[in-house]
Specification:
The chain is mostly helical and 276 residues long. The protein folds into 3 domains: 74 residues, no CATH class; 72 residues, Helix Hairpins, CATH 1.10.287.110; 77 residues, HscB, C-terminal domain (Monooxygenase), CATH 1.20.1280.20. The protein is 62% helix and 0% strand. Helix 8 packs across helix 9 and helix 10 runs parallel beside helix 12. The chain is elongated, with a radius of gyration of 23 Å. InterPro entries: DnaJ_domain, HscB, HscB_C_sf, HscB_oligo_C, J_dom_sf.
């Protein structure tokens, strides 16, 4: 009976980690698997690391015996993270500081930006929460706070601070956030290629650019900017829906369109500066 139960648990865990399951139901992954640990990089599902024992225990809450077996399955081959100075176990992931000696820790390789910023792995994340988290982390990790510490602590704080800045900038805007979500799933939008774009869409863009180039008043430029902003709002809803359904190719095509309209928005700003 023990062997049978263990086999069932292992099979269930393997099914849970299957890459096709991740691609078809990404929203289930974030809710069912990474609820406690937030979002874990999904580009290589079979290589995901589970550093937080608290998150693992949550998977088997209320099922003491079976949860122990499940914990051992997920922990196979994993090394418990300890503080580099006092050697005490780190009970959080990512662990910015040791809870025992309060010393700053080295960044954990491969940790997703969503996890660093303590945000849900979703295209429509709470940007106010993101900003609050950013300010909190920078207050505690800024290199100025470690000017009188050891060289190692100074290096770790500088690395953390730069990583937090990059994570914040990436997740703040919808376009970079969406591209990063596709990147986590092993997809990317190639730079400088229009081969996959719809000819009608490209013609529409050409007309918009010509109209912007020929704009002679700020009112004309603002109108183009307002239209572009409205299109970006529509694309945001469409991309969110595609990602929730696991339709990655559709999300990729929509993000490519968003990229063009975001570029038009920037050109409108430049045009307004010229007209002032």
């Amino acid at each position: 009976m023990l062997s049978l139960n263990y086999t069932r648990i292992v099979r269930s865990a393997r099914a849970l980690l299957h890459p096709h399951w991740l691609l078809t139901k990404p929203e289930s992954v974030c809710k069912a698997v990474t609820c406690s640990a937030r979002c874990i990089t999904t580009s290589s599902p079979l290589k995901d690391t589970w550093h937080s024992s608290r998150s693992l225990k949550a998977l088997g809450k209320g099922r003491s015996y079976h949860s122990n077996l499940l914990l051992r399955y997920y922990s196979t081959g994993q090394v418990e993270l300890n503080c580099w100075k006092c050697k005490q176990p780190l009970d959080q992931s990512p662990a910015f500081f040791c809870m025992s000696c309060k010393v700053v820790q080295p960044p954990e390789e491969g940790t997703s930006y969503f996890k660093i910023m303590d945000c849900d792995c979703t295209f429509t994340l709470d940007t106010q929460k993101l900003q609050k988290r950013y300010l909190q982390l920078q207050r505690s990790l800024h290199p100025d706070n470690f000017s009188h510490k050891s060289v190692k602590e100074q290096e770790y704080s500088e690395t953390h601070s730069a990583l937090v800045n990059k994570a914040y900038r990436t997740l703040l805007k919808p376009l970079s956030r969406g591209l990063y979500m596709l990147e986590l799933k092993g997809m990317s939008i190639e730079e400088g290629t229009d081969s996959g774009a719809d000819p009608e869409f490209l013609m529409e863009l050409m007309e918009i650019n010509e109209a912007l180039h020929g704009a002679r008043t700020s009112e004309q430029a603002n109108k183009i900017g307002k239209d572009a902003k409205g299109k970006l709002a529509d694309l945001t809803k469409e991309i969110d829906a595609a990602l929730l359904k696991g339709e990655l190719q559709a999300a990729k095509a929509l993000l490519a369109q968003m990229k063009y309209y975001a570029n038009i928005e920037e050109k409108v700003k430049e045009k307004l500066s010229e007209l002032m």
